[in-house]
Model the fold of this input.
Amino acid sequence: MFVTKRKLERFAQNSTFRHVFQPYYHELVSGFKLKGKWKSDFFGNENPVVLELGCGKGEFTVGLGQKYPEKNYIGIDVKGARMWRGANTANEENLKNVAFIRCKVEQLELLFSPGEVDEIWITFPNPQIKNTATKKRLTSPQFLKRYRKVAKNDTIIHLKTDNTGFFDYTLEVISEENLPLLYSSHDIYHSPDHEDVTSIQTHYEKLFAAQGETIKYLKFVLHKNS
Done:
């Protein structure tokens, strides 16, 4: 597989950042060193741990960290060169409440202990629009089951997407699993009083908005006993 010089440089720089983790699979299965210890051993506080799944360039994770210093934010994505952007910004701004992990979302249980995660953001993921790929959608029942293994009870999950089909699918899953829907909008930029959601934009969000796509947003409560 061809890898550009820039990607190689970014991979190398990621390895120098104290707040970027790129564990090999054998490190995860043998016992990841920060599992169950993110607050005490890395962040050095007891503030809530918030994940952004599929964080892409990491600008949303960084933006949240800047805006809410009373919380700890961890961006997760499998693309290290893409993640470098946010990781570099966090390093330049010396953000102590921001971290990044290069791994698959399917590996959450190897990274966090039960109840260690307080909140989850899912921002513009691959909608996996083919019907045969529904189990790969980050709001599918299969993924909700994974989140329950690491999240505290009644964790709030946020979703931002431009894809109407994926958004409506998520609403169906929430209904079928009898989960409390706290808010839903098919056009968050024309909904009042949601500056906390619209003030930070991802790279893909800007692209979609420029193309005239409406940005959808919802949040719901994930019960462990559903």
Observations:
- The longest strand covers residues 151-161.
- The first helix runs from residue 5 to 14.
- Residues 2 and 107 are 26 Å apart (CA to CA).
